[in-house]
Amino acid sequence: MARVLITGMSGTGKSTVLEILRQRGHQVVETDEGTWKLPDETWDEARIDELLQGHSELVVSGTVENQAKFYDKFDDVVLLSVPLEVALQRVKNRTNNPYGQTDEQQREITEYFYTVEPLLRSSATIELDGCAPAEDLADVLERLVDDGLDFPLE
User: What are phi and psi of 12, to 5 degrees?
Assistant: First the structure.
């Protein structure tokens, strides 16, 4: 059993994969929902710390400025990545989250791809191609959680 963080830019498939894992019976937390974040859009560190202390098997999804403070509490930090054009198209067409619909938000996402994603990549233990079928990505993540693998098997 393991704790896994799924991170990445908007439109990479984090929420989709998390929902599949939830449907398969895994304990999951989407930190973009509920009260996991403070008004400054960082994680509420006390709540996240309590969450992680209380679960040995858990999949958390999110991308926030202070997430690196918790990397040592996760067995794996998984970066989902897609080409920028794919992410922009996905967020523009999605119906479950309004972020990414405006030109200003699309410019912000573009900036984050060049400034934030490289930081995520440098600290991730695994990077997965978010263009792969979501069920396949969930299979890899499920093996990480269930088996505590350090890397996905080929």
Answer: -90, -10
Domain that holds residue 115: 3-147
Q: At what angle do helices 134-147 and 14-23 cross, to 10 degrees?
A: 60
Residue 131 lies in a domain: yes
> Is 154 domain-assigned?
no
Instruction: Supply the CATH number for residue 46's domain.
Output: 3.40.50.300
pTM, entire model:
0.90
- Nearest one of 151, 149, 128 to 138, comparing CA atoms: 128
pLDDT digits over 56-112, tens only? 899 999 999 999 999 999 999 999 999 999 999 999 988 888 888 899 999 999 999
Q: State residue 100's pLDDT score.
A: 84
Indicate left, alpha or beta for 125 from its phi (over 0: left) and psi (-120 to 50: alpha).
alpha
Tell me how many domains the chain contains.
1
